[in-house]
Amino acid sequence: MSKKEIRFGVIGCGLMGKEFASAAARWLHLTDVDFIPRITHVCDAHLPATEWFRQNVASVTRATADYRELLADPEVDAVYCAVPHNLHQQLYIDIIKSGKHLLGEKPFGIDLAANEAIMRAIADHPEVIVRCSSEFPFFPGAQRIAEWVAQEKFGRIIEVEAGFWHSSDLDPNKTINWKRRIATNGEYGCMGDLGMHVAHLPFRFGWMPANVRALLSKIVERRPDGKGGMADCETWDNAILACEVKTDTQAFPMVLSTKRIAPGHANTWFIRISGTKGSAEYSTKNPKQVAFLPYEPGAEQAWHMTDVPYKSAYGTITGGIFEFGFSDSILQMWAAFCDEIAHGRDNQASFQCARPEEAAMSHKLFTAALESAASGMTVSMNWS
């Protein structure tokens, strides 16, 4: 099968840029796809950071410290941009104006004003495909729950909880980084860094909060500055958002949580849905297992625990008996993005990447959450 080659530039050669390169190198893991990404040009303001790509990715022919050189390169069709939040507005807008497709990291701007500027650029360039990175909903267990929501297996929704928890910042001796500073991460703190992962499925299901009451925590207030001193941590470590969802047919509470300091959790994404006809739970802590509780009036209530086979949005060479992991979910996300570039609306994706409109919704929610935390009040949402 001949495959359409999509030439990529990478802006930001840190951890996630390397994860994309790894996913591209594993493209042979996918079956029956007629497109393939090739990373041809890499950029990092700290030029030595590009050396890993030049040594490990044979398709890379150019490396630069100036992203404008990458955007001017006719050998680049699309861009993956993974930079701190304060750089999103300028870089994302320039990428979109250059006519190159964009997969950008969340939260699509350091604050609401930056996001609105990015959204205006997207509206002015409808020919450019723009998506937001969010890998976890591509896990088979999450896909199974999405199928059940579409099939209305839950009946009337009683409540929903979704979260993304890790404990990498539990150690108070960990050196401060850009995510701890408002100037680079923004006032959202953990919400901006982790929140799109949590909101992706609820927003895709149409579960829009009518209001929010936020509980935000700063747990480690000072960290080593890497120079022998200590520095103030300015951003929120953990966030719990208690929301009320109101649809045309029902209303129910929904709790969304993002935690950088959650003891016992290395990198846990989860969703729980309770309903009058059925309830379900899925967590990446047990990636092969999804739980479902069917309910009939008067009948016994019993959870059914099922091992979810390795069944993904895009077929792979892996047999169903094996375990799906993060490297698989990021590969699936990239396949969905490349599929849209290759085929537009005729793509075969059963589940698509997070949309910029969903990232914009998260900004409105997180802005309201900051207002709620400051006032101690429940804040109403205005989605118009």
Summarize the structure.
This protein is α/β, with parallel strands linked by helices and 384 residues long. It contains 10 helices and 17 strands.
Explain the overall architecture:
The structure is a single chain. The longest helix has 20 residues, at 356-375. The protein starts with a strand and ends with a strand. The mean pLDDT is 96. A hairpin with a 5-residue loop joins strand 9 and strand 10 (230-232). The protein is built from 10 helices and 17 strands. The chain is α/β, with parallel strands linked by helices and 384 residues long. It has 2 domains: 4-132, NAD(P)-binding Rossmann-like Domain (Rossmann fold); 137-313 and 355-375, Dihydrodipicolinate Reductase, domain 2 (2-Layer Sandwich), CATH 3.30.360.10. Strands 16-15-14-13-7-12-11-8-17 form a 9-stranded mixed beta sheet. One of its GO terms (molecular function) is oxidoreductase activity.
Q: What is the name of the CATH class of the largest domain?
A: Alpha Beta
Relevant CATH superfamily of the largest domain: Dihydrodipicolinate Reductase, domain 2
Shape-level CATH architecture of the largest domain: 2-Layer Sandwich
Q: Indicate the overall shape.
A: globular
What profile does the largest beta sheet have? 9 strands, mixed
Mean of the pLDDT scores?
A: 96
Q: How many β-strand stretches? A: 17
How much helix, percentage-wise, in residues? 25-40%
How much β-strand is present in the residues?
25-35%
Which secondary-structure class do the elements indicate?
A: alpha/beta
Strand order of the largest sheet: 16-15-14-13-7-12-11-8-17
Remind me, CATH topology of the largest domain? Dihydrodipicolinate Reductase, domain 2
The radius of gyration computed from the alpha-carbon positions, rounded to a whole number of angstroms, is 21 Å
Number of domains: 2
Protein name: Putative dehydrogenase
Keywords: Oxidoreductase
Domain Gfo/Idh/MocA-like oxidoreductase N-terminal: 6-126
Domain GFO/IDH/MocA-like oxidoreductase: 143-281
